[in-house]
Amino acid sequence: MMNLAIRPLTASAFAGDVSGIDLTRPLAPDSVRAIDEGMDRHGVLVFHDQRFSDDTQMAFSRQFGELEVSSGAELYKERRLAHMELADISNIDTQGQLRGANDHLRLTALGNRLWHSDASFRAAPAKYSLLSARAIPGTGGNTEFADMRAAYDALDAALKAEIEDLITEHSNAYSREQIGIAKADYGADNQKRIKPVRQRLVRYDPRTRRKSLYLSAHIGAVVGMPVAEGRMLIRELIEHATQRQFVYAHAWQQWDLVIWDNRTTMHRARRYDDLREVRDMRRTTIRGEGVTAAQPQ
After folding, report:
1. Structural domain contains residue 294
2. Is residue 260 situated within a structural domain?
3. What is the pLDDT of residue 25?
């Protein structure tokens, strides 16, 4: 018998704390369905004391769709984790040591502290992300989530009409450019992987019948606008969407699992002393179910 219960963590019920379920064991179909329905209502779900191995995290995640290969596994030959479908969200190298101040992968990972949506740089952008906390620092390292549905609802009618049909261009290179990582740093073999893809700026969800902003640091242009004008529009929308009333900040405990819907949220990691303390997080990502906009030939 399923005892799953969800307690709202914010006044708007944007995030929910889930109890009464062990995700490391095979789930009955009604439990999977209840989590899916909870994601539709809340956008972010928090599960405590879920002692995953890499294999059990992947098995649980697959109940919600096909797993994506992590972008880091595609772009870089150096990998600490055995599975290509596990994104290594940590500050540890392949020898189990803390990465140095000038380590390239450490510097690239600093881009995760920008507001973004996972894999929006793929033509079919991600559905859910599932992040498991294996080791956490003593202080800092929180993750913040922003409610893109509530942010859209709060826009005035004129701005909603202005942005309704706008198309944006997303690339992992755009977000890393903001912290000083040049396109050339990805190497000649990876240039195709950082080619921009197109996404709608406003997404409609037929399940919930709600619209949401689809924003990310990965956005580098708005189709049909001068680059400067498009980037300023996106900056203003991100500033609007990340006001405190739209944000839930998660303070991690070891063995937390947090699931979020990339179609209706943005998130960012917060600073911690990554040169002295270990933060070992492992993320699985559910592949998106289709494109949001036609792609250029």
Report:
1. no
2. yes
3. 95
